[in-house]
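Exercise 7. Predict the structure of Protein kinase domain-containing protein from Dioscorea zingiberensis.
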Amino acid sequence: MAMASRIAAVAILLIFCSASFSRCLADLADDKRALLDFIARVPPGRDLNWRPDTSVCSSWTGITCNPNRSRVIAVRLPGFGLNGRIPPNTLSRLSALQTLSLRSNGLTGPFPSDFSNLTSLTSLHLQLNSFSGPLPLDLAFLTNLTVLNLSHNSFNGSIPFAISNLTELVALNLSNNSFSGGIPDLQLPNLKSLNLSNNHLNGSIPVSLRGFPASSFSGNDLSPIIPVTPVPLPAPIPSPVIPTPSPKHKKLSEAVILGIVVGACVLAFAVLATALVLCRGKSGDNVVSGKAVKGERSPEKAVSGRQDERNRLVFFEGCSFEFDLEDLLRASAEVLGKGTCGTAYKAVLEDATTVVVKRLKDVGAGKRDFEQQMEVIGRIRHENVAELRAYYYSKDEKLIVYEFYSQGSVSSLLHGKRGEDRTPLDWETRLRIALGAARGIARVHMENNGKLVHGNIKASNVFLNNQQYGCVSDLGLISLMISSTPPASRNGGYRAPEVIDTRRSTQASDVYSFGVLVLELLTGKSPIHVAGAGEEMVHLVRWVQSVVREEWTAEVFDVELMRYPNIEEEMVEMLQIAMACVVRMPEQRPKMAEVVRMLEDVRRVDTGNRTSSEFKSDDANSLTPPQITSAGGDPSPQN
Ligand SMILES: *[C@@H]1O[C@H](CO)[C@@H](O)[C@H](O)[C@H]1NC(C)=O
Ligand SMILES: *[C@@H]1O[C@H](CO)[C@@H](O)[C@H](O)[C@H]1NC(C)=O
Ligand SMILES: *[C@@H]1O[C@H](CO)[C@@H](O)[C@H](O)[C@H]1NC(C)=O
Ligand SMILES: *[C@@H]1O[C@H](CO)[C@@H](O)[C@H](O)[C@H]1NC(C)=O
Ligand SMILES: *[C@@H]1O[C@H](CO)[C@@H](O)[C@H](O)[C@H]1NC(C)=O
Ligand SMILES: *[C@@H]1O[C@H](CO)[C@@H](O)[C@H](O)[C@H]1NC(C)=O
Ligand SMILES: *[C@@H]1O[C@H](CO)[C@@H](O)[C@H](O)[C@H]1NC(C)=O
Ligand SMILES: *[C@@H]1O[C@H](CO)[C@@H](O)[C@H](O)[C@H]1NC(C)=O
Ligand SMILES: *[C@@H]1O[C@H](CO)[C@@H](O)[C@H](O)[C@H]1NC(C)=O
Ligand SMILES: *[C@@H]1O[C@H](CO)[C@@H](O)[C@H](O)[C@H]1NC(C)=O
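Solution. The predicted structure, encoded as tokens:
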């Protein structure tokens, strides 16, 4: 009988393994030996009928072979009373293994490091055992894994970022272990089911995982302000009709658009109310659960449903929004301006909280890239970088919510109301603008492993923070646009020469743009302006370079600055820094951190010999004669 079945088996092998008969036999024999080695060291509590003289594929309990019976592809031994460590170099020799289930046993010791040899593995179930210690980074080799269930063990350490390599993963269950530290930003496009509950994880839920229900993360020490999902916008916002010649009509259409934007936000906020309550109730947990119930949906409901994940407004940590739905309904709003990346609106709430809502247009980046970039930008907390508060991404609409700065942009401070009864922008403030902006950009350049590029530095994207220092906004958006360089018409004067060819912004091109900004502060002139009777286009950088070459340096400075005494040395130093930033060869430009140091030195040199009252003097009738005379008159009158 046994003989007959053996002959049958060999016949089948002959059919399937005609090409490499001996190799085929050898593989199965190797698998058999590996399994026998395994149970020799981990004897099961019940008989498995694993005997050297029987067929692995047809009579061994828990074993499945491939169709041509040349390899073992599945081992399922749930609840077989297996105790102790998995001996090394046993199961790991089953190199064709696709499914391994050892759940509900008494297995101990670390995650077997040689499992990284099991590269065909698609399902691994080790839950309900007593494994301990950290997960090995070698896990990353199991790239075909779709299900990984390690729940109810004693694994500890952090969740390795290497899990991101398991891109086929559909289900990941690490619940009821002792994992600690932050949750890595796992980029797992196929993940449908996730459970990290009942560990010791802290920090916040990364953007990539915010679509999962709250119960995926319960029983940890995570910060409460996180998943705000899903927030359906009522309907796709219709595209604005931009080319409308009549200014009245234009205003109207923008008002309508804004109404829709705010309406959308309002609805978003409505569902977000529960989350905001969570945010406010940080101090007392009773408040959290109590108030959450008041909302239409519990927080769990509000965050459930991965299918709705695409419709949500995502807030960044900190949640300093002190307004609720009703406030927002009463918000007034106005168009602030159209920029390179879209139109900005100012939304003022009843309690005077003001935010900037920016509708991005021509976004070329996909959702994942967009989210990643937002996460990078949103993480930046610096007094010289405008804070990104929230964002929204859907197919039809991309919104970002920024902090609002009341004094307007440096562009309007510098060029607004020229010639009328304007308050001149004093030298002190200009220095602080340059220094603040430089610090902000230097901070931006540190982000993303030192690779983040601002990409859109210009006076209209620099604001004054509470301390009256410069503060940069709109960073990192250019790289998300369909064309990653701003059109020359909008940004020409700030754009580094090499960007015209490479069509890529870099940190060096940021330095160039910053140099142009400093020249603008020094001269009071726009980067590209019309001058002379011939209405000739003047390129600020080229003009300054030519004037300085002629050694008429004094001529470049803003006439408004002539009233401030004893600043010429500082102005000349600033001019030199700006000139260093705008040199033609990108590699010859200083790094932003160096620029910050140079600017700080400008200040240090002179703070000793001047009192602050002298600085603050912006008495328009000050009779202090200008220290620097404009030899040939102002060569380019203000427009
Ligand atoms: C047996 O089938 C597997 C696929 O299931 C195939 O990869 C392998 O080459 C086959 N073996 C032989 C010897 O034909
Ligand atoms: C299996 O892993 C061990 C180390 O864990 C290694 O020495 C061995 O070469 C691997 N075998 C195969 C077939 O990859
Ligand atoms: C495992 O995945 C790799 C690609 O990552 C693929 O080439 C290979 O065929 C897969 N192996 C199995 C057994 O599915
Ligand atoms: C994991 O992915 C990273 C980058 O995605 C790669 O550098 C690394 O080699 C991968 N590790 C393994 C073990 O495949
Ligand atoms: C993981 O294991 C737990 C406990 O046995 C079980 O409830 C759950 O369904 C498993 N999940 C997956 C994806 O296999
Ligand atoms: C993990 O647990 C082991 C004991 O099983 C312990 O020695 C080790 O310090 C723990 N590691 C961490 C990071 O908690
Ligand atoms: C999982 O862990 C939690 C908290 O430690 C515990 O309350 C719960 O009973 C555990 N679940 C199981 C099935 O043991
Ligand atoms: C994970 O395992 C727990 C119990 O251990 C179970 O309740 C839960 O449903 C599982 N979740 C997933 C996503 O497999
Ligand atoms: C998270 O916990 C680790 C220790 O497990 C600690 O070092 C770290 O500071 C904590 N992080 C936060 C944000 O609480
Ligand atoms: C995760 O597992 C816990 C038990 O550990 C369970 O209560 C919870 O419902 C699970 N969540 C999901 C999404 O499977």
